[in-house]
Design goal:
The chain is α+β, with helices and mostly antiparallel strands. It has helices at about 15, 20-30, 35-40, 80-95, 110-120, 155-185, 240-245, 250-255, 280-285, 290-315; strands at about 10, 45-55, 55-65, 70-75, 100-105, 125-140, 145-150, 205, 215-220, 225-230, 260-265, 270-280. It has two domains: about 10-155, Trna Endonuclease, Chain: A, domain 1; about 170-315, Yope Regulator, Chain: A (2-Layer Sandwich). A hairpin with a 5-residue loop joins strand 6 and strand 7. It starts with 8 loop residues before the first strand and ends with a helix.
């Protein structure tokens, strides 16, 4: 039997890929937060990067998806140090964080011991995670990153995952049924892209308009509101947003009787232009006049926003 041909793995310095922590690594991590979520085994939603806390700036502020658990993340491109440990504790206190994540490529023993001590003495109120990123390539491959958990509260992920899944199962069931029925309605009312679409437990669905990174989505937004939006997923410099905003006087009349929300999402890589409509979950959980009105509203605004996205962002590169 022939022997397998193995490549040679080369470890890289994080600064080989990201020169600056604030300008380079933090935005990358925010855009690829699912990598960290996979390690910690709970879904993190990024709310803001470089969040002001007193006279300091926290690298990343977020929450656990579908919960009120506040997540704070501080990262370094060098070894752990006392300064960052002190800042993390200050941030956790100031923001009443539930989860604190410290990321550094080199973990000193005294800081691993400090995180373990904090977890031992803070109980279930706040949990600390110490994560080490490792960047490597095999032969001439593109670089890849892998996260290692250096310290964390015992049994935390299992308990949190179990609690979230148990709490959210009715919510997920509602979403799956709502999106399934909406896809059927859209497919029958001028949206062929919706035909045969698989349902999802996520709080949003997307539709492509022919350009990578741009979608026209429907989202269940906070405050019992439905949102239809042009969502620019990769717009760190807000160029796509400004392209649309330049044509504001042409765009808003197309969305007649709607209040258009212009959202550059400062501090995030994305931007959006959206319209909102309030709804009550109990009234739209089944086929009712209220749900039919909501479906019609979604369908109408999807048509208009898809046309706007294609006109200003796809046809005009």
């Amino acid at each position: 039997m022939p022997q397998p041909q193995l490549g040679k793995m080369q470890l890289l310095n994080l600064r080989d890929l990201w020169k600056h922590e604030e300008r380079d690594f933090t935005p990358w991590l925010a855009e690829h937060i699912e990598e960290l979520s996979a390690l910690l085994q709970f879904p993190i939603v990024v709310d803001q990067i470089e969040h002001k806390v007193g006279s300091y700036e926290l690298d990343m502020l977020g929450h656990v998806e579908e919960s009120d658990a506040i997540v704070i993340i501080e990262n370094q491109l060098q070894a752990t140090d006392h300064t960052h440990l002190g800042q993390l504790i200050t941030y956790a206190a100031g923001l009443e964080a539930t989860i604190v994540v410290w990321i550094a490529p080199e973990v000193k023993d005294e800081h691993r011991a400090a995180v373990e001590w904090l977890n031992k003495h803070t109980g279930d109120k706040v949990s600390f995670f110490l994560v080490r990123p490792e960047v490597f390539r095999i032969d001439n491959s593109s670089p890849a990153i892998r996260f290692h958990l250096e310290a964390g509260p015992s049994e935390f992920s299992r308990r949190l995952r179990s609690a979230v899944e148990k709490e959210d199962s009715p919510r997920h069931e509602f979403r799956r049924k709502f999106w399934e029925d909406l896809f059927q309605y859209l497919a029958a009312h001028g949206h062929p892209w919706a035909k045969g679409r698989a349902t999802t437990k996520d709080s949003w669905i997307s539709s492509s308009v022919g350009r990578s990174g741009i979608g026209v989505n429907v989202s269940m937004a906070q405050g019992s509101r439905m949102r239809v939006e042009i969502y620019c997923a990769t717009d760190p410099e807000k160029q796509l947003f400004h392209t649309l905003h330049t044509h504001k006087d042409e765009i808003e009349p197309q969305l007649c009787k709607e209040t258009v929300s212009w959202e550059p999402l400062e501090g995030a890589n994305a931007s959006r232009v959206a319209v909102y409509r309030a709804y009550e979950k109990s009234q739209v959980a089944m086929d009712t006049p209220q749900r039919r009105e909501l479906f019609a509203w979604i369908s109408k605004n999807l048509t208009v926003l898809r046309s706007i996205a294609k006109q200003y962002l796809v046809a005009r590169p």
